[in-house]
């Protein structure tokens, strides 16, 4: 899995590097602030891809003495850093667009801009789909963030493309900085979404509601073997899911059987719900006249032989 994630991140780096060079050259040649905004956007995509590359490599390292819970949160760190960088880029684009609105200078040689934006739309569409596929299969937060960047880049590139065509047709040069401002707003929205998802795991936010409900439902399937459960806690680090809970067992149940029930539940959580780490604390039932405890006791006595050899 680690190799697939690393390969996908490397492919994103190569694609972004090529598009940055093309957009930057054409942006300066044409003088289009919207193309330069896209060049900045792609530069941030490249930085995000590099961060994702090192993030997935670091997150897949095995647990060690200094990091007994593994390195999964490196993916969340990389996603958070990416979001902050995107916010910075959006502010710079807004600043340049406002200056262009005030200055009113007109872009030139727009045909080159149209061609480059068209290439960018096609290339980023293909790469983002590839990254989303690998992110879904490996549950990689870093690759998902990188794919989100590129998806936003597809939308903004298409917007810049339409804006350049309209400038060429109508001669309304004001459309160029206006499109750049719209690009900045879309970038801010994408940055917020990435930050919201990545930062949550850094502060040990619980798993999504639907996942917690699935975990609860699976535990309830085992209630015939235990009294109850409580203190269910969940969290996520990178692509790794953690679950811990307290199981209340019949007080007459042996340690061996209690351990067997815990092993069975743990394996079910791992196999059926892709939970990576499960911690279970067993407690004896303290309720007087507990029907589950009485049933367990009767079952134990029924399993004894009819005659017992006394010494």
UniProtKB/TrEMBL annotation:
Membrane-crossing segments per the record: 25-56, 76-98, 110-131, 169-188
Subcellular localization, as worded in the UniProt entry: Cell membrane
GO biological process: intracellular zinc ion homeostasis
Keywords tagged on the record: Cell membrane, Membrane, Transmembrane, Transmembrane helix, Transport
Signal peptide per UniProt: none
Membrane topology: Multi-pass membrane protein
Domain Cation efflux protein cytoplasmic, first and last residues per copy: 207-285
SUPFAM superfamilies in UniProt: Cation efflux protein cytoplasmic domain-like, Cation efflux protein transmembrane domain-like
Record keyword Protease present: no
Cellular component, GO, one term: plasma membrane
Cation efflux protein transmembrane domain mapped to chain residues: 12-202
Family membership: Belongs to the cation diffusion facilitator (CDF) transporter (TC 2.A.4) family.
Record's protein name: Cation efflux family protein
Organism: Dehalococcoides mccartyi (strain CBDB1)
């Amino acid at each position: 899995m680690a190799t697939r994630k690393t390969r996908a991140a490397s492919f994103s780096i190569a694609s972004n590097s090529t598009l940055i060079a093309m957009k930057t050259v054409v942006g300066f040649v044409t003088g289009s602030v919207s193309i330069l905004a896209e060049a900045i956007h792609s530069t941030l995509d490249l930085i995000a891809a590099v961060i994702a590359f090192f993030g997935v490599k670091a997150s897949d390292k095995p647990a060690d003495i200094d990091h007994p819970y593994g390195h999964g949160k490196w993916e969340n760190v990389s996603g958070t850093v990416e979001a902050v960088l995107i916010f910075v880029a959006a502010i710079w684009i807004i600043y340049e667009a406002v200056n262009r609105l005030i200055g009113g200078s007109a872009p030139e040689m727009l045909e080159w801009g149209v061609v480059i934006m068209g290439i960018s739309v096609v290339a980023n569409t293909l790469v983002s789909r590839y990254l989303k596929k690998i992110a879904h299969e490996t549950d990689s937060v870093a690759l998902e963030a990188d794919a989100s960047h590129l998806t936003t880049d597809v939308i903004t590139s298409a917007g810049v493309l339409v804006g350049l065509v309209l400038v060429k047709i109508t001669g309304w040069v004001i459309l160029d900085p206006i499109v750049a401002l719209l690009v900045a707003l879309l970038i801010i929205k994408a940055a917020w979404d990435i930050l919201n998802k990545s930062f949550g795991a850094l502060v040990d936010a619980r798993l999504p509601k639907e996942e917690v409900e699935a975990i609860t439902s699976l535990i309830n399937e085992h209630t015939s073997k235990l009294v109850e459960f409580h203190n269910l806690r969940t969290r996520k680090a990178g692509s790794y899911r953690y679950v811990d809970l307290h199981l209340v067992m019949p007080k007459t149940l042996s340690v061996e059987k209690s351990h067997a029930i815990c092993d069975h539940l743990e394996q079910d959580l791992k196999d059926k719900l892709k939970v990576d780490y499960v911690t279970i604390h067993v407690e004896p039932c303290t309720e007087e006249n507990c029907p589950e405890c009485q049933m367990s006791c009767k079952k134990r006595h029924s399993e004894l032989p009819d005659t017992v050899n006394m010494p």
